[in-house]
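Mods, move this if it's the wrong board.
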Amino acid sequence: MKLLDKAIKGHKYLVFLDFEGTQYSHEMIAIGAVLATLNRKGEIKRMKKGYKAFVLAKNKIGTFVENLTGINQALLDKEGISFAKAMKGLREYCGSAFLKCSFVTFGNHDMKILGQSFSYNLDTPKDVIAQIQHNYLDFSQFISTFTKDNHNNPYSLSNYCAHYFVSREGIEHDPLYDAINLAKLYDAFVKNQDIVLEDYLNNLNRMPHTPYPIKEVINRLTKGETVSAEDYKHITEEYLK
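Not the wrong board. Structure tokens:
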């Protein structure tokens, strides 16, 4: 898909990312990443074994996040590393692909976590943060252009996976598994353009601010009817009476 190729800036390497953050300060407490190589069709050709790290935050995690992720302060004290070390670890994990890849997340909250964490850890290499921010794609925003639920709302990651017949791995809110499942969803989106087309036709028909004549034409075309220029003119004339 040309639109998707443009969104990832023509890169053939993608790093699927998921961050878990504290409840109030939005600092990173865990990172999951999977590096994928694309083939000429834009499909995932291979995925590298993932990268995962727990990250020490400067502020309290929060009870809600603890219950959601299973990550608590005791775990971070035992296994956590600094944010700077986690970012250096990501850079090393990506290797030479780091400077020629796009970073893909599901939703924009991950970028908020990245920015907030950097503000608390200014010893972190700025070039690593800048590279991620400059080559970032929110796949949730991209895919929701084509696929939404019957109420015109975007799906969650798990529901998008179900919609595209993706078999999820692991548990939700484990950053590595969320990154893996995002990669699988991306691949399913690329490989199932028939689903994308059908979804987009329905999406166009449900757009709330589309003028009635255009919406009626789209509705008829979606049903398989033939609509001519004269039909379009007649629909508009009837609407204006």
